[in-house]
Amino acid sequence: MKLKYYLRITLRNFLRHRVSSIVNLIGLTTGLSCAFFIYLWVQDEMSVNKFHEKDDRLFRVMEFQTYSNEMFATNSTPGILAENLKLDFPDIKYAATTTWIGKNLLTYNNDKYFKEEGFHVGEDYFNIFSYQLLAGNPDDVLKDKSSICISRKLAEKFFGDVESAVGKTLRYENDRDFMVTGVFENIPRNSTYRFDFVLPFEDYKDENDWVTSWGNNGPHTYVILEEGAEQQAVTEKISGYVKSKNEDGDSNVDLFLKKYSEQYLYGKYTNGVQDGGRIEYVRLFSIIAVFILVIACINFMNLSTARASKRAHEVGVRKAIGADRQTLIKQFIGESLMITFFSMVLAYVLVLLLLPQFNFITDKEISLQLTPQIITFSIVTVIFTGLMAGSYPALYLTHFNPVKVLKGEIKSSAGELWARKGLVIFQFTITIVLIVGVIVIHKQTSFALTKNLGYDRDNVVFFSQEGTIQDKRDAFFTELRKIPGVASAAGTSHTLLHQMNNTSGLDWRTKQPEERILFENIRVDHEFQKTMGMEVIAGRWFDKQFGADSTKIVMNEAAVKVMGFTPEEANGETIKLWEEYDLQIVGVLKDFHYQSIHREVDPAFFWLGNTWNVAVRLENGKEVVAMSEVQQLYETFCPGFIFEYEFLDKSYQELYESETRIGTLSSYFAGFAILISCLGLFGLATFTAERRLKEIGIRKVLGASVSNIVMMLSKDFTRLVGISIIIAIPISYYFMDKWLEGFAYKIDLSVWIFLGTAIISLMIAWVTVSSQALRAANVNPSKCLKDE
User: Fold this and answer.
1) Are 524 and 491 contacting, i.e. CB atoms less than 8 angstroms apart?
2) CA-to-CA distance for 334 and 347, rounded, in angstroms?
3) What DSSP letter does each residue of 56-81 carry, written as one string?
4) pLDDT tens profile 556-612
5) Which site in 69, 165, 289, 658 is 20 to 30 Å from 460, CA atoms measured?
6) Is 248 helix (H, G, I), strand (E, B) or coil?
7) How many CB atoms lie within 10 A of CB 317?
């Protein structure tokens, strides 16, 4: 009965106060929708890699490497680490090595061929990771080095169904044959690694003997601990293991265990200390969700208390006929919960409608189902929002003296007015902080995408040297450079997108015995500098006019700087590489970015050697025709291979995909916050105009113009927004400065960002308030004063 009573009272008050009720409903629905979207996104982020059955015992073995200028954490480990850890440490039950996921060609019967994502893994792989095997046994599915395990998707593409796949033979890179010994279920979306085939690591070891050295890093190592084994205790046992295996005892490596399911969110390290990661964005958006809900609740509080005079008589009558304050508080809280429930239903519908677009923006596959978690979240949110939004109005409305109310002697106190103004200030402070955040994120992302990188990334295409290209490299490049529309072409071991191959094995004349510095190792041909448009600031680039140049080396500015030379002084110096090669410095390149601008430019060197990527610079306007001929040439040298290429500028943009998505999400949520805040201002402006209608009529009779009336009504709100700006600017500066600390190269937080935000905020407030102010100012005074 009480529920029916509260429902009837809520509906009656909704119809009686349509404007404020609709404003409340829209505000709460918008706020709850934002909270719902953020909850779904956070829940998805928190679920990444959590589906493995042995999650509590599944760890990644990582390294702390200590150099003269820093200590950093890396996933790269020696290729023989896993098998030795399993032999030497009883606390480790399973251990497996993996290489890097890449696209490789798989062929069946010379008539079906696909390039798919896959990699080499250790024998224990399916005992460590809980990828469901539809065919095969996890203990022996990779025991034979000529075996291959493929996904359901790949089995269906090649053979029609899972059952037909086992026992069939697939050719890898048109080079080696592997028999299908297992089929696994398609990798779930909430896995950081997504692939469609795995090969035995023993096969990779046969082809790459460098992985058998303790001094070489690259592969990744994963372990399952025995039940009862503690992470910290095992870390202490294995910490110096690589050092003990190093023949000369000169190792800078300390091993440690990182829980696999935590690395996605807690993957960032600074100088050997765990220092955030994606968890920072999870926390950020969780806070934004709470603040947006608070903004929506503030609207409800303000509008409910603002129209107190219109409900005061109702309260007075109820108290006069015996209702106590506790009963009235329950009524108002009940109304608030009822409106919040209706808003949640509307929010649920809105989320369902907008979820496809949200998934597109976030690159996720989130679905909205009535799971126990969703139901719990909905109930908790409704109760929290309903109580928060309704508590202050309930306490405020029920404190009136019934005698004074019924005599019409009720007046708002100064404290109540300031409380209402304080809520508006708080509301707009949050909104302004969000606006500043959106502007800074977009400006920093734009800065990253347009920054001069030290080379020209436009119209450059990268693709792999496959088939017979490496055996006939000179012939291939000669024909490639003849193609109309190809400005230049070069071979390289790098992609200029991230660290790929580095070493500390360089010695030079002035190097101190205790110095250990990491250099990026980039192999190139004679045309690389020209193709990439890099600038030589001292000496020269490799040139066939000077002979083979096989004993020469070119450094970047950062490299000669850490060596203690100027670019001019470095020329002619001799480098000893890996205590084996004597290489003379013949040139220094201006610093260029070969990884994200989150990091400063690190030392790098170039030397002539084997390359496995092709970089092609295309002439403007001739890209399509030129690439068609490049593909024909590729197919001539690589029959049976699939030609795939990437434009460097597009690949570079993908480095900042996370920041771009975060910026887009922030824009939407800031927009919702602005909408909710404006709804609150609109409702308060409407109520203020109604309350001061007679005053407006008198002022107009006495000669006040429309502009005078508009200014009078807008002044108070302008003052509140101005106070919000003063409070928000230092807060937003602090948080955005902290965010920018994650970038080595960043924008300045100039005064124009905050001034622009202040102007935008004031314009939004003026537009919102002025519509109601103009409407009130244009009312005929006779209508306002006719009952006088």
Assistant:
1) yes
2) 19
3) GGEEEEEEEEE-SS-EEEES---TTH
4) 999 999 999 999 999 999 999 988 889 999 999 999 999 888 889 999 999 998 899
5) 658
6) coil
7) 13
